[in-house]
């Protein structure tokens, strides 16, 4: 009897030890369990942009200094200000003493000089200009301090729990911190503005061209030139942060974002990002279901001034899948909010478009109204009532 019990205990131990290990591997993504990508970096993450699906990660939630990758958030707020017409690309911005005095990467602005928003944005995106970042921060918010408050508020809005900004540039500060995961989400949001890559993809250009103080811009992200499909996004380096890079590439209709933090050299940084991009494009593909601002449905509000309003997508909607994977089970489902009150501003979310695969919701994207919607006046409502009565 004792021998039987002993044998059962041994079998139980073997089952737990080996079976448990197999079970754990079953739930661990292949990218984490069988690959060793970005081995030169302290942390890394690779995501598909449209869905946000994580394709690979390594210590992605480690809290580290982001250096000039901070400017992804700075550029996001600049693009929002442009979209909201609070700023125009051809507007001249006067450079303050503070902006002109910034150290580190700069485009050598002078106090009292004026430069267009377009050129300042170019100076941030291409040359990582700290002076240009502060100049636009002051223009948008009145002061860099007020702009940093906006940055932190936006981080909260995006659900970034491990990011704290102390400046608009990424210059060293003990409490200025983020993660590879948070940086990827910031980049995902910034890339909603398609025009940003017109700036971040520039390899070289000039500011003040033809003038005595002409300045040659050379992109700090060399992959823009040397890796097919890379068109952004932002490098970073300080002694504390080491070499960092948030890169984005688009090939064969699939856009991905790769982040590495804490590499010891630019060569290692670029090698790690290239390795992540190679992995993404060798194994995965995307299928676009809807483009950004594409009509999904019409909606009728009885009390609205318009009879029907187009409901459109807030962003491009895709599914990411392993190459060769069967997609026959993919479906879409529209869910409209039940408690909608008028008036509504253009761009207001009124529902979601769910992507369903194998009876599971794999993504959900906001659906928005394509125009402002006001309440119908009494005459319109009365007319509609009469028409409805006559039809019946």
From TrEMBL:
Pfam families: PBP5_C (PF07943), Peptidase_S11 (PF00768). The keyword Hydrolase applies. Its EC number is 3.4.16.4. Coiled coil: none annotated. Residues 284-375 form the Peptidase S11 D-Ala-D-Ala carboxypeptidase A C-terminal domain. GO terms for molecular function: carboxypeptidase activity. Pathway: Cell wall biogenesis; peptidoglycan biosynthesis. It catalyses: Preferential cleavage: (Ac)2-L-Lys-D-Ala-|-D-Ala. Also transpeptidation of peptidyl-alanyl moieties that are N-acyl substituents of D-alanine. InterPro entries: Beta-lactam/transpept-like, Peniciliin-bd_prot_C_sf, Peptidase_S11, Peptidase_S11_C, Peptidase_S11_C_sf, Peptidase_S11_N. Keywords: Carboxypeptidase, Cell shape, Cell wall biogenesis/degradation, Hydrolase, Peptidoglycan synthesis, Protease, Signal. Belongs to the peptidase S11 family. PANTHER family: D-ALANYL-D-ALANINE CARBOXYPEPTIDASE, TRAFFICKING PROTEIN PARTICLE COMPLEX SUBUNIT 12. Removes C-terminal D-alanyl residues from sugar-peptide cell wall precursors. This is serine-type D-Ala-D-Ala carboxypeptidase. It comes from Gracilibacillus marinus.
């Amino acid at each position: 009897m004792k021998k039987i019990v002993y044998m059962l205990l041994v079998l139980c131990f073997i089952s737990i030890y080996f079976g448990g290990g197999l079970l754990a591997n079953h739930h661990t993504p292949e990218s984490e369990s069988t690959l060793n990508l970005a081995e030169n970096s302290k942390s890394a993450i690779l995501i598909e942009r449209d869905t946000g699906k994580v394709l690979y990660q390594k210590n992605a939630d480690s809290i580290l200094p982001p250096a000039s990758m901070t400017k992804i958030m700075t550029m996001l707020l600049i693009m929002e200000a442009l979209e909201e017409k609070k700023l125009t690309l051809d507007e001249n911005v006067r450079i303050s003493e503070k902006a002109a005095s910034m150290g580190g990467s700069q485009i050598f602005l002078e106090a009292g000089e004026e430069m267009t928003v377009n050129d300042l944005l170019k100076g941030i995106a291409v040359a990582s200009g700290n002076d240009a970042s502060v100049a636009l921060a002051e223009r948008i918010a009145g002061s860099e301090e007020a702009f940093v408050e906006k940055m932190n508020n936006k981080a909260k809005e995006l659900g970034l729990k491990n990011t704290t900004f102390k400046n608009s540039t990424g210059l060293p500060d003990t409490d200025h911190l983020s993660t590879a995961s948070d940086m990827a989400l910031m980049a995902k949001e910034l890339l909603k503005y398609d025009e940003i890559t017109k700036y971040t993809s520039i390899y070289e250009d000039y500011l003040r061209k033809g003038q005595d103080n002409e300045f040659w811009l050379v992109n700090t992200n060399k992959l823009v030139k040397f890796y097919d499909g890379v068109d952004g996004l932002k490098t970073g380096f300080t002694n504390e942060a080491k070499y960092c890079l948030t890169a984005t590439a688009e090939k064969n209709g699939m856009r991905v974002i790769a982040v590495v933090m804490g590499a010891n050299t630019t060569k290692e940084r670029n090698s790690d990002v290239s390795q992540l991009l190679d992995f993404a494009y060798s194994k995965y593909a995307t299928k676009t279901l809807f483009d950004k601002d594409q009509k999904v449905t019409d909606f009728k509000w009885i009390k609205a001034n318009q009879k029907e309003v187009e409901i459109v997508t807030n962003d491009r909607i895709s599914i990411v899948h392993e190459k060769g994977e069967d997609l026959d089970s993919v479906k879409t489902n529209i869910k409209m909010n039940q408690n909608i009150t008028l008036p509504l501003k253009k761009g207001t979310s009124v529902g979601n478009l769910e992507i369903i695969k194998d009876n599971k919701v794999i993504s959900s994207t906001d659906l928005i109204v394509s125009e402002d919607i006001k309440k119908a006046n009494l005459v319109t409502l009365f007319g509609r009532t009469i028409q409805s009565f006559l039809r019946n």
